[in-house]
Amino acid sequence: MSQSRHSWSEADVRVRPNRKGSRPRSKQRPEHADAVPALVTAVDRGRYQVLTDAGTPVVAIKARELRRGAVVVGDRVDVVGDVSGAEGSLARVVRVQQRRTLLRRSADDTDPTERGIVANADQLVIVTALADPEPRPRMVDRFLVAAFDAGMDTLLVLTKADLVSAADAAGFAERYAALDVRAVATRHARGSTDWVEAVGEHLDGRVSVLVGHSGVGKSTLVNALVPDAHRATGGVNEVTGRGRHTSSSAVALPLPAGGWIIDTPGVRSFGLAHVDPARFVAAFEDLAQVAAECPRGCTHMASAPDCALDPWAEAGTEADRARLDSFRRLLTSRQAADA
């Protein structure tokens, strides 16, 4: 009678070595003691334009151990490899130095993922047109909150001031006077350059990042401040009233009198999902002083009982009420994302 089932023995089993991961991976990373310090001036599809401290422009890639999105314009980094800057040469970014500031945003108020935009900037230059396209004060408010979160100073540049009356230009700037936001107006007319020096005085010797929605004249401003920048400029769509995107990536440019200006792509939204709503009021210094008198745990919303902001706004000016309205719209938008 034949055996119906094979009798297995150890000799019948072939043990194949586990090639993947068979060799323990070391957690030690090279120290890169010979790394060269540099500044990231542009990021484009996995390639990083960096300027070494010796003044050599170098193209680099990112080391594998650095996570995605870990390097942004303005970062101080350490690079190894070919740092000669010769055509076709390629270095490698192996380390990001500690940042002083980091400007961040999320895609919208429902997106919890924050995205670094620019590192180590001293001030945020908020560029908004007074006309063509129409100004968007609530977008300016969002930029102000982001600047506070990043620990940056602010400067408001009002472009195309020649398209509105002097009273209208002054009125828009007055909205932010209570926040001690400095404001400079520029003119759209050809041949008008007297404002260039006025803006430059606030930028010289500093690292400034320009933000604004499309069509406000950021690239025109950069070309006036840095004549050899050659940033592409565009107009406003006559149907939508919105600006056309002309800059596709952030780029850092040296200013003739010292310092850096970082131009960023125009945006149509600026999410604040990464900012704690409880910190919003601190970005509005005029409101924060009043809110200190609110009951403990006050949300500062319109429905909040005994909120000190309500009687303050009622007794104040139209500008005061506009500030409170803008602040509460931000709170409503951000808290809806957490619902």
Structure write-up:
- There is one protein chain.
- By secondary structure, the chain is α/β, with parallel strands linked by helices.
- It folds into three domains: 36-96, OB fold (Dihydrolipoamide Acetyltransferase, E2P) (Beta Barrel); 102-263, Rossmann fold, CATH 3.40.50; 277-338, no CATH class.
- Helices cover 22% and strands 22% of the residues.
- It has seven helices and 13 strands.
- It has a six-stranded mixed sheet, with helices on both faces. Strands 1-2-3-5-4 form a five-stranded mixed β-barrel.
- α6 (309-315) packs antiparallel against α7 (318-338).
- Mean pLDDT is 83; it is low at 234-246.
Write the layout of secondary structure elements.
Layout (H helix, E strand, L loop, with lengths): L35 E9 L2 E6 L4 E6 L13 E6 L9 E6 L5 E5 L7 E6 L3 E7 L7 H14 L2 E7 L6 H9 L7 E4 L8 H10 L3 E5 L6 H8 L25 E4 L5 E4 L21 H7 L17 H7 L2 H21 L1
Parallel strand pairs: 3-5, 8-9, 8-11, 9-10, 11-13
Antiparallel strand pairs: 1-2, 1-4, 2-3, 4-5, 6-7, 12-13
Helix pairs in contact: 6-7
Summarize this, please?
The protein is an alpha/beta fold. The protein has helices at residues 137-150, 166-174, 194-203, 218-225, 285-291, 309-315, 318-338, and strands at 36-44, 47-52, 57-62, 76-81, 91-96, 102-106, 114-119, 123-129, 153-159, 182-185, 207-211, 251-254, 260-263.
